[in-house]
Amino acid sequence: MRPSWFYLGVFLPSLAALLLEIVQTRILSVVVWYHLAFLVISLAMFGLTAGAVWVYLKGGRFTAKTLSYDLGYFCGLFAFATAICLAAQMTLTPIITRFFTTLAIWTELALCLSAPFFFAGVVISLALTRSPFPISRVYGVDLVGAAGGSIGALLLLNITDGPSAVLWIGAVAALGAISFSLSGIGDVPEKKPPLHLWLWTRQWIFLLLLIIAVLNPFLEHGLQPVAVKGKFEFPATHALRQWNSFSRVDVSHVFKGLPIMWGPSPKMFERQWLVDQVDLFIDGDAGTTAYRFDGNFERVGFLKYDVTNLAYFLPGRERGVVVGVGGGRDVLSAALFGLKEITAVELNPILVDLQMRESGLLGFTNIARIPGVRFVTDEGRSWLARSRELYDVIQMSLVDTWAATGAGAFTLSENGLYTVDAWKIFFGRLTAKGVLTVSRWYEPATPDETGRLVSLAVATLLETGAREPRRHLFLAAQQRIATLVMSKSPFSPQDIEALEQAADTYQHEVLITPSRMPKSSALSRIVNAADAKSLYAFTSSLAFDLTPPTDDRPFFFNQLPLSRPFQAFAFASGVLATSAKGGGVRYGNLVATVTLLVLFLIAAALVVAALIIPLRSAVNDVGVRLVRNGTIYFALIGIGFMMIEIGLLQRMSIFLGHPVYSLSVLLFTLILSTGIGSFLSDNFRLDSRARIVSWGIATAVYGFALAICLGSVFAAFSDSALAPRILLCVALIAPAGIFLGFGFPTGMSLVSSMDARPTPWFWGINGAAGVLASITAVVVSLALGITATLLVGAICYLFLIPVALTLLQPLAINVPKKVQKPQSTAPKTGRTSAARQR
Questions:
Q1: Against a cut of 0.90, is the pTM above it?
Q2: DSSP string spanning 190-235?
Q3: Which residues pair with 250 in a beta bridge?
Q4: Distance between CA atoms of 600 and 772, rounded to whole angstroms?
Q5: In the chain, pLDDT over 90 holds for what percent of residues?
Q6: Beta strand residue intervals within 579-654, DSSP E
Q7: How confident is the model at residue 390 (pLDDT cuts 50, 70, 90)?
Q8: Are strands 373-377 and 341-346 parallel, antiparallel or unpaired?
Q9: Which of 445, 416, 517, 505 has the alpha carbon at shortest distance from 475?
Q10: Is 593 within 8 Å of 572 (Cβ atoms)?
Q11: Which of 441, 432, 459, 627 is nearest to 549 (CA)?
Q12: 3-class SS of residue 72
């Protein structure tokens, strides 16, 4: 035997599995929407769980006599399935259409995503339950590989595109198969499995995937999504395409025509403006435009006609911040209106790099060469929190990448900009005469998104001490765009005159102005709210949820009142039945809600078919009391764990500035800390009433503390740099992970001391509960807030105490370890799944 090759074999598929999980979230953000990051977590957990269950059901087939062969074979299948399922996934067009067609499409996608994880689950389970090496070492290598994958994904996505990254991951898995085949544990089985000849010669899989992974980014007709956001893509439709861990950015070929604008005045068309321009698309659908600029501002004078630039008509403003560079239109607008200092803050380094290098857009837009312009690569909110400078104008024009809009706001990357907590930070960076100007989508018939924008502004003003919020607000609209201008101090008569005169000159519709009451009764009620309580009472009573978003419930784009589920369902059904798209984010909200329901149904069906039904035999001839109490116990830890994990993921996304950061940091920390907790459970066994009660209370109390205090702690450190914020997250997550790590092995120990036969059933129940809870957690956060999600998780561990006490039998105390951990059952595989799957 060659232990070093075996341990390398364990490390590589563990690394590959976590890499695949995170890279798939990036691909799905391009192909569909950001909220499917949660779907990948669920399906990864499902696939790994199903693989380990299959190993249990085939228990007699796998022994140490053929271990190297079996591990190499299934690791080769992991690599093979990763490539094949990617190819199938690239041909899918996951959209919401006719119900059964939608169900079929999304089921196919779910199978493509989960199949590679199934084989990864088989590999890890065999390594943990059949190897002759110490379980602690094997488990430790598994955790190190998984933790490395959670960080390595960021590096991989910054050097290649998403589909090619998956091919690289397949090559890593194939390398793991080669390592296993060299470990020398046992012989080749007499009866060869299917694909024996292909998979036994594993080097060809590795070399083939390696070659394709290297060449794929440079091939115009390579392996790429055929449909993105429901639209088909064809070769040669872009001049430049670049991926990173944040996005995929496409730059179109140069074309000449009327300038593409957000909300152009009708008067703009009185003159024949023809300009060279390019379109930029972020993740396939979020569009922005870059214009050719040669230093002559007269040639870009058309920007004055756009309602998004209304704030620049205010006199005496010289220093500005543009949040979200895009194609540079807002930066160019600020320079056109004469601002002397312009700071452009952009989260996505690709967009900044395009504006700064000759091979990008520098020679086309030339905005980086405008005197007084500087670029900052950072998340706008956190940068402004750290800045100590004051500005006259802070501008955000439709900063949402549209993916957030269409997704019904399950994404959190831009929602952190649209909360009361964020706007209070922005207000703190304004001069006495400074203004915050924000443009959003507008629908005259149903101005719900506009109403929520105004609600957010009024709530911010009330919290910052404004006595009459209406005196600080000016709102104008042009076609489908509304621009809000919010002043730190009440508008002066000169400022009101300047804004009203600009709106009249360019024929913008004035919706709110300090000089008169709004025509809209809803907007009038909002701007005249006497206090925060009356504002919330009114905005929560409407058909759509217009309550001011906060960091605890930061879903600005989600306006369905999910806290009133029957009303939300009835309204959504009516709108979808009539195919009325409405304005702003309305239709996207409804589609996303239906998508979430479809995903839950698919996940439930897969769980029943692949986990529950195959494991029914494990509870035959077992007492009803054990089955009932054990099922409740493992369902509670599955639900509780995922509620806490998803709640932390959502809260950290706001704090760290992007879901990719939060997902990587969370997985890395939880994997290591739950592994530590699982190891500690061997030395500090919960084998008495006092210990079980103490652990349950400690876990629940820490969960309650996270729910109640996390927002305040993050707010206190909001002005820190990224590295300290990441370290703070690690410090807060690690204790929770250690507490949570005790739950699964303790439950398995208690159950095994009574009867080891039903342990696979309980393990499957835990996995099933986790899969479904990951989707439910998103709904709870949308309806009630992230704090509620964390509280539900903490309550589950509180309820766990009486259930665990019913499983505590005299036999559970001082029972030899080998009795509690039978080789052929699931506790060993379950323990690693409790840490690394999540």
A1: no
A2: SSPPTTHHHHHSHHHHHHHHHHHHHHGGG-TTSS--SEETTEE--T
A3: 241, 281
A4: 7
A5: 45
A6: none
A7: very high
A8: parallel
A9: 517
A10: yes
A11: 459
A12: helix
